Each structure stands twice: as structure tokens, then as C-alpha cells.
Amino acid sequence: MEQLARGLKLLYQADPCVEVYVQETGEHVIVTAGEVHLQRCLNDLTNTFAKIEITASEPIVPFRETVVVPPKLDTLNEAIVADQDSSIATRFKNGLIEIRTPDKQCLLKLRCIPLPAEAASLLERGTETLKALNRSRKRRTAVDAADKGNERLSLEWQKKVNELRSDLEKALLEMPETNDLNPADLIDRITCFGPRYSGPNVLINTASNLRVPSVWSDEAATSNSFPSSGKSSTDFSPSIITGFQLTTLAGPLCEEPMMGVCFVLQEFTVTETTVSEKAEPGDGTVSQSSAYGPLSGQLISTMKEGCRRAFQAQPQRLMVALYSSVIQTTSDVLGKVYGVINRRRGRVISDHMLEGSDTFNITTSIPVCESFGFAEEIRKKTSGLALPQLVFSHWEVLEVDPFWIPTTEEEYTHYGDKADAENIARRYMNQVRKRKGLPVEEKVVAHAEKQRTIKKNK
């Protein structure tokens, strides 16, 4: 292990494009620029830096989890009517989740709604700005009130924060207006971003009896609290924010980070502990609150579980990372290039012939999880006449519900009782869950009614 750690350190120092870190599970992870770069780093680690035999897993491909607007059409492009499919019509009607802490002292009401695509893209591009804003807020909470003026953002970063807020305010206007949520007032109610306080997810506080400072304000994060009647006030905002951060860091589908999700805390109620629930000193009894631990810890787990339930109450989707590939080839092998792209679930964006030659420029988008071995396969199929170049492009939502099963009579007629067609989103989700050691719902026997004949025909 010491040789491996020393080899990884030397590899990190020798290659500026490599990142090395240790996961929570204790696994050492190497982040590289691509498939060829990864193979070269593994060879250098084995033969030059560590000089030991290493066991490498399959490449780890990140995914994202998100929610979408409830669909109006089913898989057969037919309108979803309440009488036709009551389960779909009523499942996403409200989406309001009520959850209590284990000691029944606090009640939270949460709702999950999808962020507009432009807002999620703005937050993803402004990660560095959000990190600077979070660092500034943390420094202000660590210094005295007299020194707060020295801990403000620089003029350059303050300008970037103001621009991000202005653009985000315009993007949030595209959110659907509900009875208790006005898009014009959302920007000032944003409590924090996540995960890691700088991600493309938002927590919005609309509870009237829980005062949490806005993420844009200069107030310290620990200065506001929920006022209990006549008693010393207890600050609940750190616990609420921590539960939100834990949820957005690992979603319920396959423990991958969320993207483009907005959680709205609509109500927060605290019930006063009665005298009978308190333990008398020296009587040997344990109070109800102490049996479940401190209230702050209960709030963290309750907020996390409530956000996960609110997320699952909406149409869930996986997001895949896409490569943008520019392929140069001749007209002789054009059909073989298209065949390789289709097998990799790619999509041709544009293709045109260069003027004065028989060379075609093909622009495609290919999922990163399907791109391993793509360059080698396309060179073999075309005898080296096609040269692909892969560059990360963006994240895209898979328009397939990973938990979809046929429900209507038309879907049973079209897909059959078992819906044997492969669900791509479910396959990706199960692959990630298997890698992380999470439970997977799979049938041991897929087609029990099929009989295999062992006897050979003569």
C-alpha cells in the first residue's frame, strides 16, 4: 500500500492532467482526460512509479439524477387522461411530503420541483463563483462583527456574484407558478446551493416561522433562529442545510449527485416538549428526546429523508454525460461510420462534405458510458480512414423512466405483458448500484416458460 501511495504521488507530480484522490470507501481513484490517457497512466504507474502489480476496476462514469415535469404523453405518444391511467395522473398531482422527526417534535413539509434548464446550466457554469461566495460567508461567521468589513468579496468576485444573481433571477421566471410559489420572489428565498454549497441544485425556504438568511445576504448563517415562545431560541438552519447537502450529494436512484433540482421547504413546525416527556434527574428514566439523540441530528436525517421522498414523488430521470465527436472520413466508409455510431447509441448532429474533396466532417454526440473502445472500433471498421476526436459536451436527460412498466391496454398490446424491450435507464442505474454494492431488483429467471431442448436433432 505504501508503494501504491508513493507511486500515485509521483504520477500526480509528473502529469499535470491527472487528479488522484481517495473515495469514502477507501478506493484510490485516478481521474484522467480520456481512455487513452487512462491506459497510459496505468502503465506508467505499474512500470515506472509504483513498480508493483495493480488491480484496476472498469472505468467509473459519473451520472446525475434529476426530476422532470410530469409527462403529458405516454410511451405511445398518446395523451395521459385521468380515466385512462389514474396511477400516473394522481402520482405527481401534488408532490407535497410531510415528515416528522423520530421524537415527533418537528414537522417538515417539502416539495421537489425541476429547475429550468437555463438555471441549472447557469449554476453549473458558475461553480467557481458560488465557491467564492461560500468561502466569504464562512469567513464572515468566523470573525468578530468589527472585522466583517475586511472579509467581504473582492470587487471582481462581487461583480461576478451580481451577474450570476441577475441571470439566475431571469431564468427562474420560467418556473411554473403555483398557489404558494411566485417565481418572481424565489431569488431572495434561496437558502443555499448543493451539493458542496456550489452545485446546480437549490433549497428555497418559504416557511413563515423559520427564518434562514438568504444565500446572497451578508448575514451570518448562524445569526437567525426559530423563536420558541418564551424560551431560548435554537438555531435549526445548519441542520436543515446539512440534510439538503447530503441529499443532493447522493440521490435515491443510484447514489449519484443531483442536478437541476429545487427543494422547497414550505412549512416547519416545532412542538413544545411536555413535562411528562422529560426525564427527572436520578429516577433512572430516559427522556423521549434523548432516546432519539439530539434534535439537530434528528433534523439532519429527517430533512435528508424528506428530500428523498419528495424527489421520488416526481418523475425521476437519469442524466448522462455526452461527448461531442468530430469524425473526418471519406465517402467510401461513410456507412460503416454510421453503423458504429448507432451501436454506441450516438446521434449525428451534422455532416457535410469539405469543398473540393471527398472528405466528410461528421459531428456526433455519444454517451461517455458507451464511448470506451469507440476510437479503436471505428478505426478497425474503416481500416484507419476515420479519425474521431472526443470532447466533453454537456449533460443530457434520458427520456426514459427507469421504473417504467406497461400499465394501459395499448401498452400491453404494443410491448407485451413483460415488456421485454431493454430499459436503457434501468440498465445504467443497475450497473452503478452493483458497483456501489447497493441492492438491485433483478429477476433470477427472466423467461421461465421457455424450454431448452438438450436433445440434438439427427
The termini sit apart by 59 Å
- Specify the overall morphology: globular
Low-confidence region ranges:
83-92, 144-149, 220-234, 274-286
The helix-and-strand class reads alpha+beta
Quaternary: single chain
What is the overall pLDDT average?
Answer: 80
- The total count of strands amounts to 12
Q: Hey, roughly how much beta strand do the residues contain? A: 15-25%
- Helical content (DSSP H or I, runs of 4+): 25-40%
Largest sheet descriptor: 5 strands, antiparallel
Radius of gyration: 27 Å
Number of helices: 13
Order of helices and strands: HEEHEHEEHHHEEHEHHEHEEHEHH
How would you portray this structure in words?
The protein is of the alpha+beta class. Helix content is 33%, strand content 19%. The strands form three sheets. Strands 3, 9, 10, 11 and 12 form a five-stranded antiparallel β-sheet that branches. A five-stranded mixed β-sheet has the order 4-5-8-7-6. Strands 1-2 form a two-stranded antiparallel ribbon. The longest helix is centred in the middle third of the chain and has 18 residues.
